[in-house]
Design goal:
Blueprint: H1 2-15, H2 32-40, E1 45-52, H3 67-85, H4 87-96, E2 99-103, E3 108-114, H5 115-122, E4 127-132, E5 136-137, E6 142-143, H6 159-163, H7 166-170, E7 180-185, E8 213-215, H8 240-249, E9 265-270, E10 277-278, H9 280-291, E11 309-312, H10 329-337, E12 341-345, E13 371-376, E14 403-406, E15 410-413, E16 419-423, H11 425-442, H12 450-459, E17 471-472, E18 475-476, H13 492-500
Parallel strand pairs: 7-9, 7-11, 8-9, 11-12, 12-13, 13-14
Antiparallel strand pairs: 1-3, 1-4, 2-3, 5-10, 6-16, 15-16, 17-18
Helix pairs in contact: 8-11, 11-13
Length: 510
């Protein structure tokens, strides 16, 4: 009997994993980047997002009839969840002496700490995951070779606006009036002649930036756009944010009209510093601010001042540390639950061969909750650089992009009083954000109904010709929708006409 017991003990010991080679269970809750950077950093510290296990259930928001009700309900649920569950974790962070910043847009906390703090937090049962918070460089727009210098202000309606038939919507009296567009980017040169009149913080004589501007860059920005700037500014030399906002609303009241929805109002949040670098935390902070904009002090918040749509011409690159595709998933889903549509650029990593598929690969463009936009030429030919689907980084095989819009040689505003042309899906996405504003001005009941807005835009999009046919995710570009251009190139007047004359054309079968 003793011999049998001894043999059993030996067998159990042999079957146990070696302590020297086994990976501790807590490490499975931590992005590898977090562990690697904590070990490599001279200070021993790294940045990460602590995502709590308990998250708010927002499913009831879908049945609420108005955007105002959705926004207030989602805000209340998220704040109550954070208030109830975060104090024990915050107490532990204070005891560790680490820097931290709590968020409620998803139940998580930004932390800067060392390897010991990483392990201690990952071992906690109330913590679901530790996500990386790398500094991610903006994928710069492509400048036209013959237009690298500032160009003269336009004196006619731009071809890209005519291409999507925005001018035909204006002719019916709908210019985006009553709609609010949000943008998170490198910042905005708010008093540019083509932007100032559409800025919600400008009344024609004085500026009030409360509830209209937020800076998520809290350190290290310097000049020309300092950290925690109380005034909207764009510190990026390529004027990325200012250019994208011009595509959405640009109009100086004369002939210099460059925006899809010149009658809309805009508000902004800076999520990237002067070199064009942002982090998942700065993206998150901007999303949170848009859900309930605050005064400049950050003390008073107001969900009624949330935008109808947010443009996001940025991505979180895998190669720069965004190794977990779901890091921003709950954030984007929660913003959508509040009745805010989020428009995202697909990325500039595509190509016209089948080997160029699966290139829509960066958060937040990869999510089902995001409305993802690729780019086309003025001729409606696919832009070679425009990223293609399907999304495989999260193993979803999700079809993307959703639609395409003009993104090559787009003229828009830059810092100062100038204009320039740029190319990229960063330029395509703002066309769709502007289109959302146009549609809300046609039918205000669409405000807060993200599903209806997306369905309308998709169902009235124009099929484009891809020659030769590209097959991504086993879906040829001759089939609609597909992973090359989604449902097609957006058609502002086609969508507006359907609202004005609902029996004019039937919605495509879904």
């Amino acid at each position: 009997m003793k011999l049998r017991k001894s043999i059993l003990v030996i067998l159990i010991f042999l079957l146990m994993p070696s302590s020297a080679s086994a990976t501790p269970a807590w490490q499975s809750k931590v992005d590898p980047w977090v562990l690697e950077t904590a070990e490599a950093a001279e200070s021993g510290e790294t940045e990460f997002l602590v995502y709590l296990r308990e998250q708010a259930d927002l499913s009831a928001a879908a049945s609420l009839p108005t955007k105002a009700e959705k926004g207030a309900y989602v805000f209340r649920q998220l704040r109550e969840m954070a208030k109830r569950t975060q104090p024990p974790l915050i107490a532990a962070l204070k005891a560790m002496g680490v820097a931290y910043q709590p968020y409620w847009v998803a139940n998580m906390i930004w932390v800067r700490g060392d390897g010991a703090a990483v392990q201690a937090l990952a071992l906690r049962p109330d913590v679901a995951h530790l996500y990386a918070n790398p500094s991610v460089q903006l994928q710069a727009p492509l400048e036209e070779p013959d237009q690298v210098a500032q160009v003269e202000a336009p004196d006619t309606v731009q071809d890209n606006l005519i291409q999507i038939h925005a001018d035909e919507v204006w002719a019916r009296g709908f210019t985006g009036q009553g709609a609010v567009i949000g943008g998170q980017d490198t910042g905005y040169d708010w008093d540019h002649p083509t932007l100032i009149n559409a800025y919600r913080g400008w009344n024609g004589a004085t500026a009030d930036h409360d509830f209209n501007w937020h800076d998520a860059i809290h350190s290290g920005a310097g000049t020309p756009c300092p950290s925690n700037s109380p005034v909207p500014c764009d510190g990026y030399s390529r004027s990325h944010g200012t250019h994208t906002m011009g595509i959405m609303v640009g109009d100086d009241g004369t002939t210099h009209q460059i925006g899809v929805a010149p009658g809309a109002r805009w508000i902004g949040c800076r999520n990237m510093n002067n070199s064009g670098a942002g982090t998942p935390a700065t993206y998150t902070e901007c999303y949170q601010w848009f859900m309930a904009p605050t005064d400049i002090s950050g003390v008073i918040s107001d969900t009624s001042k949330a935008p109808d749509v947010i443009n996001n011409s940025w991505g979180c690159t895998y190669g720069e540390g965004c190794t977990s595709p779901n890091a921003l998933l709950s954030v984007v889903e929660n913003v959508r639950a509040a009745g805010i549509m989020t428009v995202h650029s697909a990325g500039n990593s595509g190509g016209n061969t089948n080997d160029d598929c699966e290139s829509v690969s960066e958060p937040a463009a990869i999510y089902a909750a995001s409305f993802t936009v690729g780019a086309v030429y003025g001729s409606d030919a696919m832009a070679e650089f425009s990223s293609r689907g399907p999304v495989t980084v999260d193993e979803s095989n999700r079809r993307k992009p959703d639609v395409v819009a003009p993104g090559v040689g787009i003229l828009s505003s830059i810092r100062g009083t100038g204009y320039n042309t740029m190319s990229g899906t960063s330029m395509a996405a703002p066309h769709v954000a502007g289109l959302v504003a146009l549609l809300i001005s046609v039918d205000p009941s669409l405000r807060g109904d993200v599903d209806a807005l997306e369905d309308l835009i998709e169902s009235t999009a124009v099929e484009i010709d891809v020659d030769p046919v590209q097959t991504c995710g086993e879906i040829p570009s001759s089939q609609i929708p597909n992973n090359t251009f989604g449902w097609g190139r957006v058609d502002a007047f086609g969508a507006a006409r359907l609202l004005l004359h609902p029996f004019y054309m039937p919605l495509l079968s879904r």
